[in-house]
Each structure stands twice: as C-alpha cells, then as structure tokens.
Specification:
Blueprint lengths: L1 H16 L4 H19 L3 H12 L5 H6 L15 E4 L6 E4 L4 H13 L15 H10 L8 H11 L11 H9 L4 H13 L4 E3 L2 E5 L6 H7 L4 H7 L13 E3 L13 E3 L6 H8 L3 H7 L13 E3 L6
Antiparallel strand pairs: 1-2, 3-4, 4-5, 6-7
C-alpha cells in the first residue's frame, strides 16, 4: 500500500513539475501561428491565444493524447483518426493528429472552409477583438466568456505583436527595455523598417540580421513568406544567418553579361553559386545538365549564361 501511495505521489510530482508554462508554449509554437497567418489570413494572435486556452498551454490530456491543440471535434466530415473525450457530453468524438503542425493547419482549414466563419476574414488583419467576439458568436465555444478569455491572453502576453510577424525574441527585447505599449509599437515599426534594400545582381535584396526569419522579412515588404522562400530557393522553415543576403524579388534565369562562368572553389555548393550570381537554382542545374541536389566538384566550371554542351 505504501508503495502504491508513493508511486501515485511521484506521478503527481512529475506531472506538476513537467507542466509547460504559457511563455514556453508560445515560444515553441509562435512561428507556426505566424506561418498559418501568412497562409490563410487568420491573425497569429488569435491562433496562439486559442491554442493556449484550448490546450491549457499544451498540458491538457486531450492535447497530449491526440495532438489536438484547438479542441476541434470530429464533426460529420472528419475521416481521420479520433479519440473519445468528455466535454459538453460524455464520450464526444475529437480529432486526433500525428503532429502539432497538423493540428495548427487543420484549425486554419476548419475556419477557412466553414461558412459560419466567413465574415471574420473581412475584418482588419489586426482586429483580434473582432475575431475573438466573432468566434464566440459563430459558436466556436460554449463558454459565455470565451471572447474575453481569448482577448485577455492576447493582451497579457502581447500576442498582438505576432500579427506583424514579430516573434517572441523581438518581444523580449522590447520588454527588457521596459517600453510602454505605445513605445513597443514604435520600436517594432522601426525594427521592421530597419531592413534597408540593397541591390545585388540588379535585384532587390536585404541583409539578414540576428534573429531574422523569412516571415519577418516578408511582413516588412508586404510579401508572402512563401515568396521569400521561393526567391531564395530555400525550404520552408529555413532561417537566414546574420549578414546573409536575402533576395526580395525573383532571381534571373541567367547571370549578367560578362559573367559567363564560375570556377568552383572548395566547399561551394550550387545554391551558394545561385545566390552569388542571382540565378535561379533550377535554371543553374538545367544549364549545367546536372540533377537537382547534385553538387559540383572543386575546380569544376559552372556555366552561368549558356547551356553546357
């Protein structure tokens, strides 16, 4: 009996100390919220606040068992895996996901594809108050104070800054400086506009700073995040290094006149050459009759304007 009680006590202690804080949860998934905002137009502040509330900051049993971070029930059109959980009634059907990312994406799709939420997408991108009340009015949750709780999470944690593509690292800088809400907005506006446009290979580009993401750069120039990834031939999720040149417009099909060839030095990759000369990576591979992913050898000559024979 003592052993059983001790085991129960250890489990309770482990659970208590392994609880994820709200700040940790936001730090962990803020970029997912920003990416989904870029993809669908749902304010990142709303998505992050709903996730905090519905998943108890990632600590709820439903969240842990099924990766369901938004409390979305199966509904009649759900064909994926599910779990049973007591909510408004006993043994209700809730959606189950393989990953947290799937949950964030499905939440977006759920709102985008449901006619009852259509009016929310007519609101201003930063109108988190309108979104919160709209979600409640459309029946997302039954709690009478649902909108107020979502708004409180946003304002307590300054999640409205996410709607400008600002991540928690930039927020921490502003908080450490002990700026007022108004000054925080001014600080972030300056921060976003601090990317000076440079010319590289007759293309518009910026120099990445410490902590930059393609999402932040895209927001600053009214671009979609996927466009910046595409312009720079980078996979989704890539984060630029400090002082790295980031193109904000599509690269050329071939290099400038007078730059016909490049002799490869040790360690250089096709992507590196592509960025140096502002030539699209797929065109560089095609021009040199190489397979995508194939890398050149040291001292090899890479054709930049004409096709290799």
């Amino acid at each position: 009996m003592k052993y059983v009680l001790l085991l129960i006590f250890e489990v309770l202690v482990f659970t208590a100390f392994s609880q994820q804080t709200r700040t940790q949860y936001i730090e962990k998934y803020q970029l997912l919220a920003i990416e989904e905002m870029q993809r669908t137009g749902i304010p990142a502040s709303i998505k992050m606040a709903q996730a905090c509330l519905e998943s108890a900051n990632g600590n709820s049993n439903l969240c842990i068992l099924s990766n369901n971070h938004f409390g979305i029930k199966c509904k009649s059109n759900w064909t994926g895996p599910s779990v049973k959980w007591d909510d408004d009634a006993r043994n209700e059907c809730f959606r189950k996901y393989n990953t947290v990312e799937e949950s964030f994406i499905d939440h977006s799709n759920f709102l985008v594809n449901s006619p009852r939420y259509a009016s929310l997408f007519q609101l201003a991108p930063n109108d988190y108050v309108g979104w919160a009340h709209g979600l409640k009015a459309a029946g997302y949750a039954t709690a009478p104070d649902y909108a107020q709780r979502v708004i409180k999470i946003i304002e307590d944690n300054k999640l409205y800054l996410l709607d400008s593509g600002i991540n928690i690292d930039d927020l921490a800088i502003a908080q450490r400086a002990k700026l007022s809400n108004e000054n925080v907005s001014d600080f972030l506006k300056i921060d976003l506009e601090a990317h000076k446009v440079i010319s590289a290979n007759h293309l518009k580009a910026v120099v990445a700073r410490e902590g930059d993401t393609y999402e932040i750069i895209a927001q600053g120039f009214r671009k979609k995040a996927w466009e910046i990834y595409n312009f720079n031939d980078r996979p989704e999720g890539y984060r630029p290094q400090k002082n790295e040149v980031v193109y904000i417009q599509k690269k050329h099909k071939k290099a400038q006149k007078g730059k016909d060839f490049h002799r490869v030095e040790a360690g250089e990759t096709m992507h590196f050459i592509s960025q140096v000369y502002g030539v699209r990576l797929n065109m560089l591979y095609k021009r040199n009759k190489m397979k995508p992913g194939e890398e050149p050898k040291t001292e090899e000559v890479i054709y930049l304007r004409k096709n290799r024979r």
